[in-house]
């Protein structure tokens, strides 16, 4: 690295100094709000997590050190809800690859493709609450549309399937136990958590991720794919070896954002569809924080849990970054 | 495989997916015309059509009021977000100052903070400022978005630097540069951001749920829950309300469809 | 661009003016407004209307959307609370008092000549805390056994009559359960709500806490037996629908959905429920209803529930709000509640009238003496000052869910619940030294006396 001539450096410094004030002017509106509503609260909640503060003022305020964190780690509920939170990530790969698949189809030059795009996008811009209530009735074990369809198919093909009890059941495809961090064969099946995952895939698959992929696909230089086809590669080979690497930055971005979003999620579903049940199986960390803070008033403890959630997201994003960037670089 | 066969297959597949996306909505629409007794029956089409369900929605809750509130709040938040984010993005993308990229990284890091972390202190802040149960309390905390700053910065970076220099030679100051040169070029990005912000706030559930007490300040998602309360579930009316709730978004989406894909194409992905 | 932003801003400002202008006015024709947070039972409308006629200087408005305790507390502390709000049990009262939201009206009630002793005894626990009084009763409820006369007549079975025991109920319910040829239940013999599980616990002689509240004892043999009984009604005797069977039954919707509407639709021969069910069941014109005292196991007691109304200490109109408490002690209010069948009015005396026993508008309702008798033998929930009631109820609900869906035995579930709640108590004590002292003193006192 060579040092630039002193004169140039000086003028750059002067320019930086001059621009700094202008920059502050431009930043100010956003920065003020940012300090007041984001960084301030973040620090505040960190501080509060070391106290027994409760909004309702029923217990005298006291600093309790790391007690909230110790309690949290010793609390089996915390671990169960952490597992629930991760469980809901199971749908993510399906949703991401589904979005890619749809985007590939939509990037074909066909008539009326805009109509399909709008239809696919429909679920993701409908108010979540409305959709969740809709799905709640679709999932009704007896007169819901889904089980009616399953029973119909089962009768037709003489399969003798008993349809799942969906939102009423604690079963899950991994066979996780309800009260212990363990696997229990009796819990193996489909239940509330899976129902919420399936709904999530339906809601997300045609959404912003699909649009992102669509945008990235149109950005792939045509010469590259054409060159591949001239070399006699099949369309799958062209996709695998030419298009897919070009999509890597998009995939990376989508994965990072889905991880962040997924780990924070589950609140609305729990609130609108299940109340976190049955037996707490659909309670995620964010819903847990809500109940602790706004229903049980233990703001100190709730803040500690939300910091744990933040730490979890932070670490996972770093890990993502490590592995993801490698992929991006080729 | 001939092109014709391939296209037919594609259409088939696309239609299949489109149906999967559509059937629940269809069910929603059909349910909204059913009488209450038929809601939990399996006949998909109502035996007698009840279009008056839509009128009942307006009679039983102040639906028009909720509509206005949702649109009003989302519009304000969108406006403020676009304004503050574009200004901040300008500072991050077009101005040279020390520590610029470090400050930006700090902004980015906050995207990882779960909403619930800031929710509790923000709520207490609103209590202290006596902004509970007010429009201001719903609008202001949502109007400063790190995401928006991020999205627009990526956009502004793609605009050639030569433009700034040319403007400076013409004697324009930074303020003029921002309004007259940069912003018009960032239009696709602004529209994308506006759309995301509008949709996000129009459907937002959590913040209004904890913030709002008065009936006349409720927004659509929280207001609609009236039809799903334990004291009287009226799924048919709920579905009617939900359908009406979607309409502005569909309009908005179709109008901005062209910009949206282009906007995302230019921004977001380039790190 | 500048123009575009300016126009948008102008437009938004215009909208804001509109929003401001269509804000509803609080003042209604010079009357002082009062806001009451309660549930949206249709019976409330007449209760509000009667108040507004009796006290023309005020305008009372119902706010059904903010009933949750946490909302009332936080909103009151934030300066946007209601003037009046309902309190559903002793735990809520203690939370309202300790957070400084409930107004101590002991002196005011004395001045107004209102005697809290006239109210049903269980309700007194909803308003009295540390010998101070914070409100007045709203209504009282306790459960008895509803039965569908038509179904009994069709089966040729005589109507049930109390006092009777759980075993009698099981036999009768089995007799009244009707299955189709495939064994699928067409009509259940009995239905009950699991949220009222304490009704059964009390009847079996169980309790949630020790009498001093220092320890949770839901793992006692009595409590386990009661929960086991609830479980057996579903899975052993098969006279009560399981959660799956419940979900499969279409309901009519309307106020008080769930067991009430299912019973109303003839899906069960008998059901355990309160007098307030009439608010919904009176609309089922063809239904011929009978009431018998609830069967019991060891003790002839019934769980009392209901509510009281408290005043927000931070309300600028709290003196005006006192009028509502006065209203609740009047004959007019009590007669209205009793005639609406929104439970029973708070004042005991007004149920000892002929109009209560024989309502001219509903001559077929001849069982009002049963409701009065049930309320007299009812007992309020006990609370522990050493645990957050909200947490305890969440922990218990989770375990009951598991029992109800047949995933866990009653004994296991109640052991877990007791253990978890006692851990919560330990946590509370760790965090609050003054509470710890109180707890230690109580424990010492009782172990010294040799009984718990």
Descriptive report:
The complex is a heterotrimer of chains A (330), B (271) and C (452). Chain A has helices spanning 6-48, 67-74, 76-87, 91-106, 113-125, 128-138, 145-157, 192-204, 208-219, 222-230, 235-264, 267-274, 285-295, 299-329. Chain A is mostly helical. The model of chain A has no long low-confidence stretch (mean pLDDT 84). With 271 residues, chain B is mainly α. Chain B has one domain (59-266): MetI-like fold, CATH 1.10.3720. Chain B has helices at 3-31, 52-60, 63-93, 100-109, 115-128, 135-139, 146-157, 162-169, 174-185, 187-202, 206-211, 220-224, 235-266. Mean pLDDT of chain B is 83; it is low at 267-271. With 452 residues, chain C is an alpha/beta fold. Chain C has three domains: 26-140 and 304-379, Periplasmic binding protein-like II (D-Maltodextrin-Binding Protein, domain 2); 144-192 and 243-286, Periplasmic binding protein-like II (D-Maltodextrin-Binding Protein, domain 2, 3-Layer(aba) Sandwich); 195-239 and 386-452, D-Maltodextrin-Binding Protein, domain 2, CATH 3.40.190. Chain C contains 20 helices and 13 strands. Chain C has helices spanning 2-21, 43-54, 69-77, 90-98, 106-111, 121-124, 149-155, 166-176, 197-203, 221-235, 243-248, 259-264, 278-281, 318-329, 331-340, 354-357, 368-376, 389-404, 410-431, 433-449, and strands spanning 32-37, 58-63, 84-87, 128-129, 132-133, 135-142, 144-148, 178-179, 185-191, 268-273, 289-292, 302-311, 378-379. In chain C, strands 1, 2, 3, 6, 12 and 13 form a six-stranded mixed sheet that branches. Mean pLDDT of chain C is 89; it is low at 252-256. The interface between A and B is large, with 92 and 90 residues.
């Amino acid at each position: 690295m060579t040092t630039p001539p002193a004169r140039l450096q000086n003028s750059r410094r002067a320019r930086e100094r001059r621009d700094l004030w202008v920059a502050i002017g431009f930043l100010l509106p956003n920065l003020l709000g940012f300090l007041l509503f984001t960084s301030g609260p973040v620090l505040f909640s960190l501080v509060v997590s070391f106290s027994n503060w409760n909004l309702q003022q029923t217990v005298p305020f006291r600093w309790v050190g790391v007690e909230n964190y110790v309690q949290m780690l010793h609390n089996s509920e915390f671990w169960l809800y952490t597992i629930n939170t991760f469980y809901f990530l199971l749908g993510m790969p399906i949703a991401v690859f589904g979005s890619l698949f749809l985007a590939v189809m939509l990037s074909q030059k066909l008539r009326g493709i805009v109509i399909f795009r709008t239809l696919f996008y429909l679920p993701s811009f409908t108010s979540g609450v409305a959709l969740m209530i809709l799905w709640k009735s679709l999932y009704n074990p007896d007169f819901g549309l889904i089980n009616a369809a399953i029973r119909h198919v089962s009768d037709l093909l003489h399969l003798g399937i008993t349809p799942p009890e969906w939102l009423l059941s604690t079963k899950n495809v991994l066979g996780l136990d309800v009260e212990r961090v363990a696997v229990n064969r009796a819990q193996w099946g489909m239940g509330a958590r899976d129902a919420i995952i399936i709904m999530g895939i339906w809601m997300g698959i045609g959404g912003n991720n699909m649009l992102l992929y669509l945008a990235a696909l149109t950005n792939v230089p045509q010469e590259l794919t054409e060159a591949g086809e001239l070399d006699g590669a099949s369309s799958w080979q062209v996709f695998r070896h030419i298009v897919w690497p070009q999509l890597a930055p998009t995939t990376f971005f989508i994965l990072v954002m889905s991880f962040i979003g997924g780990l924070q999620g589950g609140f609305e579903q729990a609130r609108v569809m299940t109340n976190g049940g049955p037996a707490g199986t659909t309670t995620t960390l964010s819903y847990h924080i809500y109940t602790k803070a706004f229903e049980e008033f233990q703001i100190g403890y709730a803040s500690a849990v939300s910091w744990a959630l933040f730490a979890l997201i932070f670490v996972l994003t770093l890990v993502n970054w490590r592995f993801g960037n490698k992929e991006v670089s080729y | 495989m001939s092109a014709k066969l391939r296209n037919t297959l594609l259409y088939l597949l696309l239609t299949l997916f489109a149906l999967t996306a559509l059937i629940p909505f269809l069910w929603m629409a059909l349910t909204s015309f059913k009488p209450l007794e038929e809601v939990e029956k399996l006949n998909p089409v109502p035996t007698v059509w009840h279009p008056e369900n839509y009128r009942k929605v307006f009679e039983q809750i102040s639906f028009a009021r909720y509509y206005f509130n949702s649109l009003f709040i989302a519009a304000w938040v969108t406006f403020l977000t676009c304004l503050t984010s574009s200004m901040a993005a300008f500072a991050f993308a077009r101005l040279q100052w020390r520590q610029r990229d470090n400050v930006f990284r700090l902004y980015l890091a906050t995207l990882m903070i779960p909403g619930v972390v800031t929710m509790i202190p923000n709520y207490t802040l609103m209590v202290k400022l006596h902004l509970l149960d007010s429009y201001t309390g719903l609008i202001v905390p949502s109007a400063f978005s790190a995401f928006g700053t991020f999205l627009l910065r990526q956009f502004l970076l793609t605009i050639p630097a030569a433009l700034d220099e040319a403007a400076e030679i013409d004697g324009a100051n930074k303020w003029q540069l921002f309004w007259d040169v940069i912003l018009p070029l960032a239009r696709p990005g602004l529209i994308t951001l506006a759309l995301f912000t509008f949709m996000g706030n129009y459907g937002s559930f959590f913040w209004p749920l904890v913030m709002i007490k008065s009936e006349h300040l409720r927004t659509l998602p929280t207001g609609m829950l009236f039809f799903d309360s334990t004291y009287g579930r009226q799924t048919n009316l709920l579905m009617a309300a939900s359908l009406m709730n979607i309409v502005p978004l569909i309009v908005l989406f179709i109008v901005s469809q062209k910009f949206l894909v282009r906007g995302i194409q230019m921004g977001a992905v380039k790190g | 661009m500048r123009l575009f932003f300016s126009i948008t801003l102008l437009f938004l400002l215009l909208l804001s003016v509109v929003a401001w202008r269509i804000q509803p006015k609080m003042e209604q024709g010079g009357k002082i407004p009062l806001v009451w947070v309660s549930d949206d039972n249709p019976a409330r409308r007449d209760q509000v209307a009667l108040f507004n006629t009796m006290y023309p200087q005020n305008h009372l408005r119902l706010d059904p959307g903010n009933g949750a305790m946490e909302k009332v507390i936080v909103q009151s502390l934030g300066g946007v609370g209601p003037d009046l709000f309902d309190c559903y049990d002793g735990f809520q009262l203690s939370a309202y008092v300790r957070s400084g939201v409930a107004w101590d009206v002991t002196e005011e009630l004395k001045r107004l000549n209102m005697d809290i002793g006239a109210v049903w005894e269980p309700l007194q626990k909803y308003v009295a805390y540390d010998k101070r009084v914070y409100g007045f009763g709203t209504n009282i409820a306790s459960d008895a056994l509803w039965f569908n006369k038509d179904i009994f007549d069709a089966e040729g079975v005589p109507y049930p009559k109390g006092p009777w025991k759980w075993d009698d109920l099981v036999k009768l319910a089995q007799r009244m359960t009707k299955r189709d040829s495939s064994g699928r239940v067409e009509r259940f013999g009995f239905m009950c709500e699991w949220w009222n599980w304490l009704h059964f616990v009390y009847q079996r002689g169980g309790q949630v806490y020790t009498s001093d509240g220092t320890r949770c004892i839901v793992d006692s043999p009595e409590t386990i037996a009661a929960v086991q009984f609830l479980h057996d009604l579903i899975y052993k005797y098969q006279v009560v629908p399981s959660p799956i069977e419940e979900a499969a039954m279409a309901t009519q919707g309307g106020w008080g959905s769930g067991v009430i509407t299912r019973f109303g639709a003839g899906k069960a021969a008998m059901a355990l429920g309160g007098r307030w069910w009439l608010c919904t069941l009176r609309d089922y014109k063809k239904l011929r209803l009978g009431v018998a005292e609830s069967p019991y196991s060891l003790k002839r007691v019934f769980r009392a529930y209901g509510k009281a109304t408290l005043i927000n200490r931070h309300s600028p109109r709290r003196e005006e709000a006192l009028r509502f408490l006065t209203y609740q002690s009047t004959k007019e209010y009590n007669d209205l509640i009793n005639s609406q069948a929104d439970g029973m009015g708070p004042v005991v005396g007004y149920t000892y009238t002929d109009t209560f026993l024989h309502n001219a508008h509903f001559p077929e309702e001849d069982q009002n003496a049963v409701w009065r008798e049930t309320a007299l033998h009812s007992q309020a929930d006990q609370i522990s000052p050493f645990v957050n009631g909200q947490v305890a109820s969440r922990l218990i609900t989770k375990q009951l869910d598991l029992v109800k869906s047949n995933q866990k035995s009653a004994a296991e579930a109640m052991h877990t619940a007791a253990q978890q709640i006692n851990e919560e108590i330990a946590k509370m004590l760790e965090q609050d030294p003054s509470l710890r002292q109180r707890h230690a003193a109580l424990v010492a006192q009782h172990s010294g006396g040799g009984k718990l």
